Amino acid sequence: xxxxxxxxxxxxxxxxxxxxxxxxxxxxxxxxxxxxxxxxxxxxxxxxxxxxxxxxxxxxxxxxxxxxxxxxxxxxxxxxxxxxxxxxxxxxxxxxxxxxxxxxxxxxxxxxxxxxxxxxxxxxxxxxxxxxxxxxxxxxxxxxxxxxxxxxxxxxxxxxxxxxxxxxxxxxxxxxxxxxxxxxxxxxxxxxxxxxxxxxxxxxxxxxxxxxxxxxxxxxxxxxxxxxxxxxxxxxxxxxxxxxxxxxxxxxxxxxxxxxxxxxxxxxxxxxxxxxxxxxxxxxxxxxxxxxxxxxxxxxxxxxxxxxxxxxxxxxxxxxxxxxxxxxxxxxxxxxxxxxxxxxxxxxxxxxxxxxxxxxxxxxxxxxxxxxxxxxxxxxxxxxx
Length: 385
What we know:
Enolase-like, domain 1, six-stranded parallel beta sheet, TIM Barrel, four-stranded mixed beta sheet
């Protein structure tokens, strides 16, 4: 069953563009994948088409050959751009493989070790940055059945916070904790904003509110800086989403700077690459919480990884707080019931593209949301409306 064609689809939504990929084969079976990369999804699309000559005619089952050929024969680093393109193609291959053999992807990469996947919700705080508004929004999350959530209370901060802004951030955290009670998992996102000293100072103030983890308090490129923060706080540190190779993850693990790794599957080479990384994390007694701030195909890929990974803990989701048509881009999407994802249903990834809905949401030329602009958490479209 050989690869005969590759088609790409750019989908615009108010806060970022998504990139979907379809691989066709000579036996009429196709597979779908995703390579979204925020501001650079159109760039990833170009990379997919530039890679096409390297894999046309390849057997769909040769996922390792595909990834190796595109990482090594395409002799350029490329970072996240290159890996998103590769991962989109790899995921599409696994979808086609699953359809060909009549099995969900998770049965092909280790089998089911979890019967359902606990979700943690993100993107729920599109409200004014006041303690009252954040508290009310958090209560609505819990009312939907979620028992885990994440948010960034730091506004547009970069490197440091002035005392007034730091106090507001802590007040937002305190308000959410009081609103949801002591047993809801509450993770604090920092989006690589701070210097080590600022991260430690803020982390100390967060400790009384028992965050489930403090995510990317400093930029990911300097592992010793992450280690310094981790060693000085009584809060677990999570990181990994910005890394773009298993070698970078190995270096992070070698330093023992974090034991909650939120790798981005689209940066790790897709399904099998992510499973390998999860096993590396397991060898260091860590847990994985795959990053899923992209489109619905990426979330589905994460679920297949979670289901077959013994040390997976929680799965990020924006779906209940994205545009209502986001799920409709696919023919099926698992429900989230009482805070848990149901397992994907059907062979392969468990869904197909809804091309009619995709056509309704063309690529937009406006800049995507910047995390370092005021009111970014409204996802831009709501600020301008």
